[in-house]
Design brief:
Elements lengths: L8 E10 L4 E12 L4 E12 L10 E6 L8 E10 L13 E2 L2 E2 L2 H4 L9 H4 L12
Parallel strand pairs: 3-5
Antiparallel strand pairs: 1-2, 1-4, 2-3, 4-5, 6-7
Length: about 130
């Protein structure tokens, strides 16, 4: 499975984690050529990649590379780098955070926290309302 230039590398999405193996499951989409139709089609494949530091979480897009010496029959790759972090979307051109097609202004995300005071609990409430005549 090694390429001519060295060890194979794939980009995929992190699925589930297996803490016993210290590995994560990576879904990689490969393009396969159909000779009859002369077209490429998506072929999903899954790999288990070693992640002993637990630096990736579910949903991250990562770059995985082949291990020189496989850990086991199942875990034959390792997480080389995080390409895109899940939930932390940054525009690669401007470097600003965005949500969909809109930029998120960081000044408005971090409001100072304040507490609401319950003014009704501090006042004494009489059992008879003032508008009721005695």
């Amino acid at each position: 499975m090694a390429s001519a230039s060295g060890l194979a590398a794939f980009v995929g999405k992190v699925g589930k984690r297996r803490d016993i193996w210290k590995a994560v499951q990576i879904s990689v989409t490969k393009m396969t050529f159909n000779d009859y139709l002369k077209m490429y089609f998506n072929k999903p494949e899954t790999y288990w990649a070693a992640d002993p530091d637990k630096k990736v979480k579910e949903g991250d897009i990562v770059l995985i590379r082949e291990l020189e010496e496989p850990q086991s029959d199942v875990v034959q790759h390792y997480v080389h780098d995080i390409v895109f972090e899940s939930g932390n979307i940054i525009d690669p051109i401007t470097g600003r955070k965005c949500r969909g097609t809109k930029f998120v202004d960081e000044r408005f995300r971090n409001f100072p926290k304040f507490e609401l005071k319950n003014t009704f609990a501090e006042e004494e409430i009489s059992p008879i309302p003032p508008y009721v005549k005695k």
